[in-house]
Design goal:
The structure holds two protein chains of two kinds. By secondary structure, chain A is mainly α. Chain A is 60% helix and 0% strand. The longest helix of chain A is centred in the first third of the chain and has 23 residues. By secondary structure, chain B is α/β, with parallel strands linked by helices. Helix content of chain B is 53%, strand content 10%. In chain B, α14 runs antiparallel to α15 and α14 packs antiparallel against α17. The longest helix of chain B has 91 residues. The chains are: A mainly alpha, B alpha/beta. Chains A and B meet through α1 of A and β15, α13 and α14 of B.
């Protein structure tokens, strides 16, 4: 009888790559719900635009590369990339910018480098950086969190603004962005940065209603809630062993230590550790962005270095750079350092610690 | 060392253990097969016993086809220490000794002894060792070796070698962990034969005298643990411990780490850290060998998987075709997607090429998985660098990096990531979400690296050989140059003589011209007035014919030689022509002399003339020879420079041969000369009878000159033949040895013969070179 041959091991744990990816998507649900609550339907529309673009781009490129389309789409990696990018974009971003960004993420950053597993950079963050540099104004046009907004934005308004630039009642995006006080509202990080540059102290800057109406004085309304919702999802990922604790913990620690150091130098000019952690994309990035396995460091020590360095760069760029938030920049910077980090942080293998000894056992 | 002996023993007594990094927890599925007692199989009709079933060297066969063998009879032996014999598992007849497919992942055939069982199962006489404690250890060790015991845990390392370890052993670890899923052979053995295992432990303890013995069993085998505890509790030196279940805790290095916290050095052995490990099955076999005198001819094999109706453990004779075992357990092919049988466990076992392969000493399990039981058909996806593999690796490797570099064939990088520390446990591939057969990639990369190393070694050796050869050739070249310098000095001497003879050479030419003119005149006289000199006409005719032949020959060689040897022979042709001219001149002279003898009044001057001419001729010949030699030398030098140095090593032999040939030629020449002299003497006597031969002396002179000439020609022919013979062998340097001064006759003829020899040599050289080139070409092709 002829028998069929295969290579050992013959047993496998039944969790496949697509399952891993799906679990990441499920873990995003709390954060997405919080975003929908505070920033309206725009988030959902952006997700749909990005998703469609991603699937189309992925299929087209995979077909061009003469690979199996079905297999490429089934791994859900394009879906995850699209969703991560979509939730990072301002909810009312013109649709074509989302399309360009998603195309850049999937076609250029991922597929041109060889597809899943071969990309040097985090596709979502590279695309975000590209959009931010290309369209700085549009990319910082966030709506004020629901409770602070002057205008109630309906679903049809959102669709209308995204696709035509004007809402059904004729407002453009800048009018919609006006707060209850009638002033166009910047994101908390942007606002504080502007205030600080105008000579206000940090404690004066956070007296804005964005901050005063939230849980803590330094956490902004809406933004911090979204961040905490993503943290919840991230903790589930750690519990499910989809991601290891190393990168989130070291990233948050990196932010906290750098921010604390600066605020100890001058508490009036530099934000506190808590301010940096719960505002902007730090928590979201720590659990969902920096932990992208493909572009992150893979050794245990390397992951700690990778996360901590992202935290450090985030605070440095936020404080001294031109942009209010910096998770995307930091991640992309550290992506480039990964091969180096991995090489120099190889764990000691079995037997490396014990040198050969001639005789033993005289103890 | 982080922990000393007392600390480790204290921890073990508290049932506290270390752990190893990574590891996985696959579903054990041991309940499938560990519920029933070890069964005994009916004796199979035919047994196939591979000659080599251990790590080391195979022995040579002691039996021949047609021999009857008894159960337990030794089939192989070897003087090599790293070798253990194999034995006949039952009585019967050897029906074949041939290559068969055996239980090896490669599926390559190995030499096997095939035995047709007679069904009587008659034991050969056994020689158990009673009171082994009183026997010298070497007796016990050789008994273990003779019993053919090789590590039954899976590696097949010859047990007698471990038993003779000279290093001090602190911990003797008895491995009953059996961490692979499905396998329950050791589990059942411990449950049912704990006492004999204990006896084996005692023998091993006696041999290697450890400070403490640890029997380690995973905590998923409580029955086995209790059985071992029961038989060992009377001896405090033996500790029976339960370790946490985690794959691969049963790996030698990992178990040492779990029990002692020590790590075997990367380039060392467990003995280097004071540890020795034996499998429980090996202990059982040792007890069998010493106490009962029985060699290792059977072992416990688990037959399991959902595709067998009756999963169980059986005592299988070594050599039993697995088909026999599968039938016993009621193997159901239709429960499988494709027929698949794994030898070993699901983590490290390998799929078998056919059901005819035999059970060997390291066969612990046959696993026939049902359709959805295991994941045999893998859909390999891209690596997403999730590093689940790195988290699972018990050796703290970075499988994702090793995979990346192995796949890209960056083998040096893969090695930098410690590829060779991989124990191929399969934990990485087990957890891989992209179902990448990582271990397969590592095996391939390792094999490629080994091949590269072998090639590198080979290249290194070739380089050394090449350099040695280069040095040798350089030496030979220097020797040759020295020889050439000597020869050049000799040549200088030789050229000085012709220089002196040059003047006379000019005279010679004049004389030759004169002779020719005379000969012509004689001819004309002959043709115009035939009756005028009737007596001289035959001689004249002879001379003419000879001259014509000589000329024709000269022309012929002049035509054929260039075709064969090209430019270098032009000089030869000239030389040849000169020789021919000389011959012609000599004949002409003879012709001239004959009329002279017929005209008595001319006798005195002509004979005097002849004398001087003879001398001149000799001088001319000497000059011609010297010139020819000089030319030949020049030709030789150029040719020897262009020559492939490879032919050099054989040169001495060839030189000897050519010398031999020359010697022969000389002898032949001598014989010819002798003959010629005799003939000359005869002729002289006959001439005296001739009426018109009054002036006897000149005529005799002439005759003897003629005879000498003939002799010379004969000598030349003989020599040429000899040389040709010598040259027919791939002889490059035959010509080289011709520098020695020889007799005039030989020298006169040698250019012709040498030329032929040289042509033959050139042809042989060309052929040799062609062959060599082809050989080199083939060689370089082989290397690719």
């Amino acid at each position: 009888m002829k028998l069929v041959l295969s290579s050992s091991p013959h047993q496998h744990v039944q969790r496949r790559t697509d399952q891993v990816m799906r679990l990441v998507i499920y873990a995003m649900v709390p954060g997405v719900i919080a975003q929908l609550y505070f920033f309206g339907w725009g988030v959902l529309v952006q997700m749909i635009i990005a998703l469609v673009t991603a699937l189309v781009c992925e299929s087209a490129i995979v077909a061009l590369r003469k690979r199996q389309i079905g297999q490429a789409l089934q791994d859900y990696s394009a879906v995850v990339t699209a969703l991560l990018l979509a939730v990072s974009l301002p909810p009312l971003l013109p649709w074509w910018m989302t399309v360009i960004g998603t195309f850049f993420a999937i076609a250029v950053v991922k597929q041109l480098y060889g597809g899943l597993g071969f990309n040097l950079f985090n596709p979502a963050m590279a695309a975000y950086v590209m959009l931010l540099i290309s369209f700085p104004a549009a990319m910082s046009s966030w709506l004020p969190p629901g409770e602070l907004a002057a205008h109630a934005v309906t679903f049809s308004d959102v669709v209308s603004v995204i696709f035509s630039g004007y809402s059904s009642s004729g407002y453009d995006i800048n009018q919609l962005r006006a707060g209850v006080d009638g002033v166009t509202m910047a994101t908390p990080l942007d606002y504080v940065k502007t205030q600080l540059s105008q000579g206000y102290t940090y404690s004066e800057a956070i007296r804005h209603p964005q901050f005063t109406q939230s849980l803590w004085s330094s956490a902004s309304l809406g933004w911090s809630a979204v961040a905490l919702a993503y943290t919840l999802g991230g903790l589930v990922l750690i519990q499910q062993r989809i991601i290891s604790w190393h990168i989130p913990v070291s990233l948050i620690a990196g932010v906290a230590v750098t921010a604390t150091f600066l605020s100890m130098l001058n508490g009036d000019v530099y934000g506190s550790a808590l301010f940096h952690c719960v505002n902007g994309a730090v928590l979201f990035g720590a659990f969902f962005i920096a932990t992208d396995p493909v572009s992150a460091s893979t050794t245990p020590r390397g992951r700690l270095i990778f996360g901590a360095a992202i935290g450090f760069w985030t605070v440095i760029i936020r404080t001294f750079g031109g942009y209010p938030d910096a998770i995307a920049f930091s991640v992309v910077i550290m992506n480039m350092a990964v091969p180096l980090i991995d090489y120099y942080t190889q764990p000691k293998v079995y037997g490396q610690k014990s040198p050969v000894k001639k005789t033993q056992g005289e103890s | 060392m982080p922990y000393d002996f007392e600390q480790i023993v204290e921890r073990i007594d508290q049932q506290k253990f270390w752990t190893f990094p990574g590891g996985v927890h696959p579903d054990g599925r041991k309940h499938l097969s560990n519920q029933t007692a070890i069964d005994t199989l009916p004796i199979p009709k035919q047994l196939v016993i591979p000659v080599k079933q251990h790590i080391g060297t195979a022995g040579t066969c002691l039996v021949a086809v047609g021999d009857s063998v008894l159960k337990g009879q030794t089939l192989t032996s070897s003087p090599h220490p790293f070798s253990v014999p194999v034995h006949a598992p039952t009585s019967g007849v050897v029906t074949a000794i041939e290559e068969r497919t055996t239980a090896h992942p490669s599926g390559l055939p190995e030499l096997c002894v095939v035995i047709e069982a007679d069904g009587n199962d008659t034991w050969a006489p056994l020689s158990p060792i009673s009171h082994y404690q009183e026997q010298p250890k070497s007796t016990l060790v050789s008994a273990i070796c003779e019993a053919g015991i090789a590590g039954l845990g899976g590696a097949g390392f010859p047990t007698h070698i471990k038993s003779t370890a000279r290093k001090k052993v602190e911990f003797l670890i008895i491995n009953g962990v059996e961490c692979e899923p499905y396998i329950t052979a050791d589990d059942r053995l411990m449950r049912e034969f704990a006492w004999q295992i204990r006896q084996g432990i005692d023998i091993v303890r006696h041999l290697i005298t450890p400070k403490v013995i640890i029997v380690a069993i995973e905590d998923n085998k409580p029955e086995a643990y209790n059985a071992m505890l029961q038989v060992c509790k009377d001896t405090p030196a033996i500790r029976v411990v339960q370790i946490p279940t985690k794959y691969p805790a049963g790996g030698e290095k990992q178990l040492i780490q779990v029990l002692t916290g020590r790590e075997v050095p990367r380039t060392g052995l467990p003995a280097d850290i004071g540890v020795m490990m034996f499998n429980v099955g090996t202990c059982y076999a040792v007890a069998d060998a010493i106490l009962h005198g029985k060699p290792l001819i059977r072992r416990v094999v688990t037959i399991t998987g959902e595709a067998v109706q009756k999963p169980q453990n059986v005592w299988a004779l070594i050599g039993t075709p697995i088909q026999h075992l599968l039938t016993q357990a009621q193997y159901q092919v239709k429960k499988q997607k494709q027929p698949t049988v794994i030898m070993g466990g699901p983590m490290m076992g390998f799929t078998l090429p056919s059901v005819d392969v035999p059970v060997v000493k390291i066969t612990n399990c046959l696993l026939a998985p049902a359709r959805k039981e295991l994941n045999l058909q893998q859909r390999e996806l891209a690596c997403i660098r999730c590093s689940a593999c790195a988290d699972a690796c018990p050796v703290s490797l970075l499988p994702q990096q090793m995979y990346w570099h192995s796949k890209a064939l960056e083998l040096d990088k893969a090695e930098e990531y410690n590829l060779f520390d991989c124990i191929e446990c399969g934990a990485c591939a087990y957890v891989c979400p992209s179902e990448i057969p990582l271990v397969h990639y590592y095996r391939k990369a390792k094999a490629q690296i080994r091949i590269q190393r072998d090639e590198k070694d080979k290249a290194e050796k070739s380089k050394q050989r090449f350099e040695a050869r280069k040095a040798r050739l350089e030496k030979e070249k220097q020797e040759r140059e020295a020889k050439h310098q000597k020869a050049a000095a000799a040549r200088k001497k030789a050229t000085q003589q012709p220089a002196a003879a040059e003047e006379s050479g000019a005279k010679d030419k004049v004389a030759a011209a004169l002779a020719r003119a005379k000969a012509k005149k004689a001819e004309q006289a002959q043709t115009s007035d035939e009756s005028a000199s009737e007596q001289s006409s035959p001689d004249n005719n002879k001379a003419r014919v000879a001259a014509a032949i000589a000329r024709a020959k000269a022309k012929k060689t002049g035509q054929s030689a260039p075709a064969e040897t090209g430019q270098s022979d032009n000089t030869e042709d000239e030389r040849k022509a000169k020789v021919a001219a000389a011959v012609a001149r000599a004949k002409a002279k003879k012709a001239a002399a004959t009329p002279a003898s017929s005209a008595p009044e001319n006798t005195e001057p002509s004979s005097a003339d002849n004398d001087s001419r003879e001398a001149q001729r000799k001088a001319k010949i000497a000059a011609a020879v010297a010139k020819a030699k000089a030319k030949k030398h020049a030709a030789d030098e150029t040719s020897s420079q262009t020559e492939e140095p490879n032919s050099e090593p054989v040169a001495p032999a060839q030189q000897e041969e050519s010398a031999e040939a020359q010697r022969k030629a000389k002898i032949a020449a001598a014989v010819a000369k002798a003959k010629a002299k005799k003939q000359a003497a005869d002729e002289t006597s006959s001439q005296t009878e001739e009426p018109n031969s009054d002036p006897v002396a000149p005529a005799q002179q002439e005759e003897s000159a003629e005879a000498q000439r003939k002799a010379k020609i004969a000598a030349a022919v003989a020599k040429a033949k000899a040389k040709k013979q010598a040259a027919q062998e791939p002889d490059d340097n035959a010509a080289q040895t011709d520098n020695e001064p020889a007799s005039t006759a030989e020298e006169e003829d040698s250019p012709e013969a040498q030329r032929k020899a040289k042509i033959a040599a050139a042809v042989a050289r060309a052929k040799a070179r062609k062959v060599q080139r082809e050989a080199q070409h083939n060689g370089s092709e082989d290397n690719e």
